[in-house]
Amino acid sequence: MSRLPDILFNLGQCYRKQWEAEPRSELGRRALHYYEALAREAPQSRFRADADQFVGELVPAVIAAEAKERQGLIAAARGGDALKLSQMMFTQGQLPDAAGVLDRLLREPGNGRELLAEAYLLRGRIAAGTGDLLGAEGHFKRALELRPSAELIDPRGQEPAALEAARKAVAPGGLRLVQAPLGEVPAQKPARLDVKVEGDSEQLVDALELAFRAGETGAFPDDARQATHGAARRARPRALGGRARIDYYVSALDARGGVIAESGTATLPFRLQVASPPRYVQGPPRWYEHWWLWTIVGAAAAGAGVVTYVETRPEHITTLQAMTR
Hints:
The strands form two sheets. Strands 2, 4, 5, 7, 8 and 9 form a six-stranded mixed sheet that branches.
């Protein structure tokens, strides 16, 4: 607070010694701050020559340390941290570095829809800031498909024009999955679920993944997840067996496995009923299966047997002979 030359120089010395023990750019910058303050406020000080010498030595070393630290931050940043780092760089005008962080982030596996939407939106702003309006429009289209309500905060230069052009080119409602409810499905047979991908003009969807479980039995197991690739976009689960109910949901995955759309979720899945195996149902009786037919046949046979029996008895023959006499 006193701004005395001796104190300014000694503070610079303290931070320089710390810098030599641990070359962090923050310590070097603090040492430079006090050396430069000495030169500015006490140009005739007996420490001026030493301060100027230390400044000359520290400036290139601190710049190199900052560059190394920045590259380390860029290499280590992942997910949300990478997005925050790129936002900071964008605010500070470090557009190439911000673009590099985002490009690597967009190549990483497993990013979710909201993170990707924010990353594409910022990448579009960077492209617009470097004069690449076509690239900015492409990034903005991807952002709008993932987040149809995306808007710019404190827009600059050509950003609003590129965003408006992208908004006119994408379908309203954004990327989504549409499916017809299955309702009831037969037991012991594969069930087919047809899913339509809408609002994907940028071809963000690479595969569909179906997760299913027996109704209300806890988590969806990894071995009950099936992904299907290609233009058909049709998922076929294995035979569902005799389960009474099946819970399921469908996820749209990008080329790196990130979930960018869902139809149903693990907490709010769809449910379908599995029909019971059909019981044997007897068809209409054939002509020889009618009871009345065999009753008639039985009666006729019994009558014929009686007549035959009576006619072949000796008494009957004797009586007949007596009558004919």
